[in-house]
Amino acid sequence: GAVAVFVVGHIKTSWAMWGEVALALFSFLIAAAVYIMDTVRNIWVCYASYVVFRIIYMLLITIATFQIATNLSVERYALVFGANTFIALALQSLLTLIVVDASGLGLDIFTQFLIYASYFAAISLVFLGSGIYSIM
Hints:
Keywords: Membrane, Transmembrane, Transmembrane helix. The longest helix has 28 residues, at 43-70. Helix 2 packs antiparallel against helix 3 (43-70) and helix 2 runs antiparallel to helix 5 (109-135). By secondary structure, this protein is mainly α. It is built from 5 helices and no strands.
């Protein structure tokens, strides 16, 4: 993952224009990797999909952080990234409570993976719409 992030750092592109489209593509690839983990019952394929998931997730987070940081002044980094982390953890906890916990839906593992794949696919569509809007 670190090598992939290093390589992306040396790609000369206008991240302001193409960053959200890249985020859409990476989110879709993550959705595909999680969907493969849901449907394929081979442990080695699941491990390979997890490695792909982690590599792409690291790329996704790096690009998103870069996109946010380019529009901030230095004085606001801690506030913005602290608020982002708090909101992300709150959403993750809420999703876990709803999907995994017995007091929520208490779904089996395969259904959970399907929901997580759908979640990343929905995020991909949001980024794609925003990216197309930015390009136009």
